[in-house]
Amino acid sequence: MKLDMQKRMAAELLKCGESRVRFDEERLEDIESAITRQEIRQLIKDGAIYKIQAKGVSRVRVRMRTRKKRGPGSRKGAKHSIIPRKRKWINTVRPQRRFLKLLRDKGIIEPAVYRKLYLMTKAGAFKSVAALKEYIRINKLARRMIV
Predict the structure, then answer these.
(1) How far is it, in rounded angstroms, from Cα 41 to Cα 133?
(2) Do the Cβ atoms of 22 and 49 come closer than 8 Å?
(3) Which of 33, 40, 94, 113 is deepest in the core (most CB within 10 A)?
(4) What pTM does this model have?
């Protein structure tokens, strides 16, 4: 009892490989007698021919692996080859400028104070937005509280 032709046609219709096509053991006579695509289609609809779930490759180990190998021992190059000086500068200055614009637009600081703080930011006076907030609070430059 050869069912190679039926298996090939079923694989085409089910859009999978022949290794994933399975036949119902009780309906083997019906499957053997089916020689047209229409008959195979009907058997698929009835459940006599079906495809098994494809086995996927688990990515868990890869996900676990990505957290490793990030320590100082695995880093190559000088201090600034990992994050260049310019990128570090951009990452600190842009949020500070954004924060200053927000304060100015909301009317929390006056334009003259904004200008002074903008130039200080440009000079690198503040390490972060938190340091900028602290400076504004200590020197009482805000008209009202900053949230």
Answers:
(1) 70
(2) yes
(3) 40
(4) 0.52
**Cβ atoms within 10 Å, residue 99:** 20
* DSSP letter string, 78-135: -HHHHS-HHHHHHHHHHHHHHHHHHHHHHTSS-HHHHHHHHHHHHHT--SSHHHHHHH
Contact 51, 20 (CB under 8 A): yes
Query: Token digits for 41?
Result: 């289609």
The rounded distance, in Å, linking the Cα atoms of 18 and 37 is 15
The answer to whether 52 and 89 are in contact (CB under 8 A) is no
The per-residue pLDDT for range 24-73, each reduced to its tens digit, is 999 998 899 999 999 999 999 999 999 999 888 988 888 877 677 778 88
C-alpha span between 103 and 120 (Å, rounded): 15
Q: Which of 80, 83, 91, 132 is nearest to 108 (CA)?
A: 132
Contact predicate 6/32, CB 8 Å: yes
